[in-house]
Amino acid sequence: MASPQSNPRVPIRTLQLEFPQSLAVYDTYAEAQRSVDFLSDKEFPVQNCMIVGTELKQLERITGRLTWGKIAIGGLLSGIWLGVFVGLIFWIFSSDPSGLQILTTAIFGAVFGLVWAVAGYAATRGQRDFSSVTQVVATKYEVLVEHKHAGQARDLLAGLPGALPNPFA
Predict the structure, then answer these.
(1) Per the structure, how many domains does the chain have?
(2) Which of 1, 76, 131, 169 has its CA 20 to 30 A from that of 98?
(3) 2 inside domain
(4) Residue 165 covered by a domain
(5) 0.90 exceeded by the pTM?
(6) Cα(111)–Cα(13) distance, rounded to whole angstroms?
(7) Closest C-alpha among 143, 145, 150 to residue 169
(8) For the CA atoms of 41, 35, 18, 56, what is the dihedral angle to 10 degrees?
(9) Does residue 4 form part of some domain?
(10) What is the extent of the structural domain holding 85?
(11) How far is Cα 82 from Cα 114, in angstroms, rounded to an integer?
């Protein structure tokens, strides 16, 4: 999910509510989405609602052990791809194209990639000898609503099948 700062196409104002009030808190996004969809089906002005992921956790899944060999092969392959790309650009815009341009840039790219990867790995001094993927996830999802529509939304949401009794009634 993009933040308003990282996505210039989304005006910050569209991600704000005026005096928001909590309507409900759910364990899953699907449950929060279901409640807003229910409100929409009841013709509630859902543009006055917002689903907010809260209680964030960072998950890191370890995918493997890093070794000098894996680092070197990864850097080499990455460098070759970069070199081939640069070589193709030179080849396209060259007045005298030859396959030698692609080959030499691939070789230079391989050397560059290998040196760069090995130097980067050496700089960690063995403090992170594993590869992983990370993700930030919410553990709760809160549905917020503009204060002037909170009462109507709570009354409607009380009719959602499987909903808990309205604590505000």
Answers:
(1) 2
(2) 76
(3) no
(4) no
(5) no
(6) 49
(7) 150
(8) -150
(9) no
(10) 67-128
(11) 12
